[in-house]
Amino acid sequence: MTILNDPVSAKLGDRAQLSYITSQAADARLNVELETEGMTLNIGPQNPATHGTLRIIARLDGEQVLWAEPSCGYMHRGYEKLTEVRSFPQVTSLINRIDWLGSFANEVPFILAAEKLMGVEAPPRAQWIRTILFELSRIANVSLFLGDLGVQLGAITPVFMAFRDREYVLNLIESATGGRFHPNFDRIGGLKDDLPAGWIDETKSVMKKLRNFCDEIESLLFGNEIFQSRTRGIGVIPRDVAMQYGLSGANLRASGVDWDLRRDQDSPMAWNKVDFKVWTHPDGDSFARCWVRLQETREATKIVDQLLDGIPAGPVMAKVPKIIKVPEGEAWVSTENPLGEMGYYVVSRGDSGPFRVKIRSASFNNISITPWLLRGVYVPDIITILASLYFILGDIDR
Amino acid sequence: MYSLLAVVIPYWGQSLLRVLGGLVAVLLPAGTIVYVFLFKMMSFMQSRLGPMEAGPYGSMQLFAEVGKWLQKEDIQPHNADKRIFRMAPIIVLMSTFLLVAVVPFGPDAWFTNFETGVFYALAVSSISVLGILMAGWSSANKYSLLGGLRAAGQLIAYELPMVLAVMGVVIQAGTMNLQQIVLAQNAGSIFGTDIVGNPYVLTQFVGFVVFMIAVQAELTQAPFDMPIAESELVSGYMTEYSGFRFLIFFIGEFATAGVFAMIASTLFLGGWGVPFSWFGWTSMDSVANWMNVAGPLIVFTKMMVLVFLIMWIRFSYPRFREDQLQRFAWKVLIPISLANIMVTAVLKVAF
Q1: Inter-chain touch A383–B321, beta carbons under 8 Å
Q2: What are residue A358's DSSP bridge partners?
Q3: pLDDT at A33
């Protein structure tokens, strides 16, 4: 009889006490009837936010996420297994399709691993052109991210600017390699072809356009108060958590870790011939990740400009046998791809094809942090966080 | 309208004309807005051309779109509450038709001339919340439900700054009759200068800004399009609608944009009138008869200017999060509009 001992009801008369108890009971019943239960929301595999077929299973309390879990594999194509029945030159056409926005960058670490096993080194001109194309595919990839970011947050115009200016870069890649999206240009021991005439001047003017595009996006999107209020302080990844989850690329650098494989590892590529700044941001929130990517796009255009100035003359292909047989051995090569660290662990048994290839793609590790990151955020923030983590579905599912 | 073109129109004729005029006043602006702003202006802002094939510069595209929507299968989810599901889009569109009834288009060209026109307009504009909530709930879809609830919270929150912003106009004009508000603006003067009359966008600028922001939110246009939020909720409360029912929602969205812009131009930009001092008019009776023909065109022009503002913002801003949006309404817009009412009242007494 807790109600009767209630100090309020003790002061009342009998009738008043009765009505007081009745009203309390009605309140209690109402509270039981209105007790809410959670809702499980499947974001994806066909949701526009997941650009691809990633599925986020989110348990919601109203608009708040209690827990969320990514479920991937809806687009698994079995590339690791397929490489075992392909010869070494054939593998590049498969791995082009992993991160389909920056295809050329996928080929490079695999070819470098094969070259390492064979003991071949591409001539300097080939390495420089490789690096240029690598950075161009980074620009093609990240510039689309910068536009898509707007569309995820509700601004529909930036994405068209991104598609417009990305087109120039794709045209450059096409004129050099013959393929817009999937160049399939890298060969063991060098490149398929030399650069076409006039390509260098053309590239320089395009790099200027891309720097303008970065300025445009910065003023249109990054300076916008709504954009800042949507991204600042949302999805904060502290430095140690980022390292524990094995994040790489801009996601790691946005958490304040100064780590870039282009600068920090000894590679045959031409990155050590140019000077560039590795951008980091101390905040670790969504805004920091977007901002670091914006700066990296600018930096990549400068790298391309420097490389174009100092491109050496000479052949683009080393002497390699017509039929490639890779000697027995194992090699691990990783590079700083647009999405983060991408590496191939290639095991060869002396055949014309690899015995086993393990692909370490950046997005798979980058989205592994989402259950930790999405706990307790609002539904719109899921979209912000997924957009700022930036994954390509092909890079997750391979 | 009784003496329009010096012909006496019987009562049934007047009623018929009003119904037809209501249809024209809702559908014509909606079509123009969709073509001029959604098809063309958005395309030019995004460095593309927009529809170009159907008719000259794609001007017939709208008819093609309507034909496409009419042909589409009308899908109703299995678990949907069918009756409510079918009713929802009609209720949304109904509020638009009710709203246009009080907009004056000329000295005699009006559908109804309420003494409490402002009050009525603000009241019927919130009927669409019911339709949206019904659509969200009856679709049996979690995205729709989230979208519908977000819409309800947002529309109710922004109703308040809207009402409070209009209060300033009502205080200054001293009437709730929209026709009288038009008269007060065009026959008025600012500090004795009557060259532009007294459009309240000048004297009630704060109220105008608050009103336009609230309109943007009421229309669920970006940056307040959280209820639709196509990147997360697919299409919010409209997710499960297809074919003709979706078309009704679509018309409702843009027709309401047009009608809200007409109300805003009536309240703040002088409505159908031109400054009376230009032609030496002094009162409503002295206004020339040709204003009944020119008036609708003037309202239409002012509406297009205001819709341009709405769409410009829509195409370039990212969207607010739901809680930020509520905070903006309650902590920024409502205090500002309350202060505006206070200042207006004090100045009204002082002058």
Answers
A1: no
A2: A345
A3: 63
Q: A267 — alpha (psi -120 to 50), left (phi > 0) or beta?
A: beta
**Distance (Å, whole) CA B286 – CA B282:** 6
pLDDT on residue B308: 92
Scanning A26-65 for CB atoms below 8 A from B yields 39, 41, 43, 47-49, 63
Output the CA angle A35-A37-A38, nearest 5 degrees: 150
pLDDT digits over B152-168, tens only? 888 888 888 999 999 88
- ∠A87-A91-A95 over CA atoms, to 5°? 170
Q: Average the pLDDT over A236-264 and give the result.
A: 88
Q: How many domains does chain B have?
A: 1
* pLDDT score recorded for residue A62: 74
Q: Report which residue type is found at B93.
A: L
B244-257 b/e (C-beta count within 10 Å ≥ 16 → b) = ebbbbbbbbbbbbb
> Among candidates B53, B255, B98, B230, which has minimal Cα distance to A155?
B230
Chain A residues close to B223, C-beta within 8 Å: 154, 226
- Is 60 exceeded by the pLDDT of residue B104? yes
Q: How far is CA B253 from CA A149, B115, B128, in A?
A: 26, 28, 10
- The residue ranges of every structural domain in chain A are 42-397
Residue B65 inside a domain? The answer is no
A42-397 folds as Cytochrome-c3 Hydrogenase; chain B (1.10.645)
Q: Which residue has the tokens 């021991």?
A: A189
DSSP count for chain A of H helices, then E strands:
17, 8
d(CA A282, CA A298): 19
Q: Does the distance separating the beta carbons of B323 and A378 come in below 8 Å?
A: yes
Bridge partners of A40, per DSSP, are: A59
Q: Considering the entire predicted model, what is its pTM?
A: 0.81
Torsion angle in degrees (nearest 10) through CA of B217, B219, B225, B227: 100
Contact flag A153-B48 (C-beta cutoff 8 Å): no
Q: What mean pLDDT is predicted for residues B217-223?
A: 85
Is residue B254 a part of any domain in this protein?
Answer: yes
Q: Do A154 and B319 touch (CB under 8 A)?
A: yes
Q: Give the side-chain half-sphere CA count within 13 A for A362.
A: 25
Which of the four pLDDT bands, split at 50, 70 and 90, describes residue B79?
Answer: confident
Which tens digits make up the pLDDT trace of A307-334?
A: 988 888 888 888 888 888 888 889 999 9
For A153, the closest of B48, B146, B318 (CB atoms) is B318
**Inter-chain residue contact A227 with B42, CB threshold 8 Å:** no
Residue A200: its H or E element: helix A199-217
Contact between A160 and B46 using a beta-carbon 8 Å cutoff: yes
A379 vs B contacts (CB less than 8 Å)? 146, 232
Please check whether residue B280 lies inside any domain of the structure.
yes
Quote the domain boundaries for residue B137. 4-33+80-350
Distance from first CA to last CA of chain A, Å, rounded? 65
**Domain for residue B180, yes or no?**
yes
Q: For the CA atoms of chain B, what is the radius of gyration? A: 21
Which residues in chain A have their CB less than 8 angstroms from residue B50's CB?
Answer: none
CB B282 within 8 A of CB B188: no
Question: What does the pLDDT read at residue B1?
Answer: 46
